User: Fold UDP-glucuronic acid decarboxylase family protein from Streptomyces sp. 900105245.
Amino acid sequence: MVTGGAGFVGSHLCERLLSRGDDVVCVDDLSTGRAGNVAHLLDHPGFRFVHQDVTEGLEVSGPVDAVYHLASPASPRDYLRLPVETLLVGSYGTRNALELARRHGAAFLLTSTSEVYGDPQVHPQPESYWGNVNPVGPRSVYDEAKRFGEALTMAYRRTRGVRTTIVRIFNTYGPRMRADDGRAVPAFVTQSLAGLPLTVTGDGSQTRSLCYVDDLVTGLVRALEAGVPGPVNLGNPEEVTMRRLALTIREICGSSSEVTFVPRPQDDPMLRRPDISAARRELGWAPGTALADGLARTVAWFREACSPGALSLPELVHSRPVPAPPTRRRRPASSGPTAGPDSPRKGDTLHDPAGTLRRQTA
Assistant:
């Protein structure tokens, strides 16, 4: 099972697991994920999509060998738009995913985040660093949701015997990022392609470490299979300033967009770089995609998304946020994994910004 499986990272993970012969149940409420991310998987005999808010409960018929828990708003724009939902999915959602793993004797992997380090005073950040987090700031809804999720995951490991793994994901990029999610890479790409000014926050000297999504997915799979408790950092240890990133993307796009500077958000980290010694040692993992190559693939995907029959550039740049999660309802005790008033049936149309998707259920 992959919760948040229709999201940016989750959809790539579903694809990878299917490619090696696994059966995959993808659970997503589409509050930030996109049905179009998994549209190409719907005819695969080993794939099943469940439209479900994981805070309401999780169940699936048949055996479950592994639970990858990715469900959560992950970009600042999304978790600031959905603050309570972010806290609930980090608490109730994580508990429900852990309970599913416990009932089925399945391995469990929590995708935590580099945001648990806050605005770090230790650089690069090792897993032993406890962080510098503002617990009541605007970003705290995400930071603290993930920190609580880590604590709950370790409690289930220690007291309930669940085989758990925690990974802390650093900045990741690649195809299927939403243009409107507010993160730097999709913002710079869509602005460059549209000939709009590139909006760099602060003076652009703040750094991020960008890992290509295929490399990250390899790390996720290795971490769960290794069974290490973690936490384990997964990210690219090479830093880039935001100004340099904007200029690199502009060059790849062949754009003449100007760079403009806007105020930095509150509690925005100045430095972000993982120490991946543990991943190298325990997983034999390190990212292998050069930034220029990964950005070129990402730009090519966005260009294709802007081709005839897909979203236009203005729609990409100015697209509206996706709907909030379905209204919470009590699920009938006898309902199956696709039952409930908000679950799609055969022929239902799901939210698909890139076109119309006709859902087929097993």
The mean pLDDT is 86. Residues 2-176+211-238+273-288+321-358 form a domain with the Rossmann fold fold (CATH 3.40.50.720).
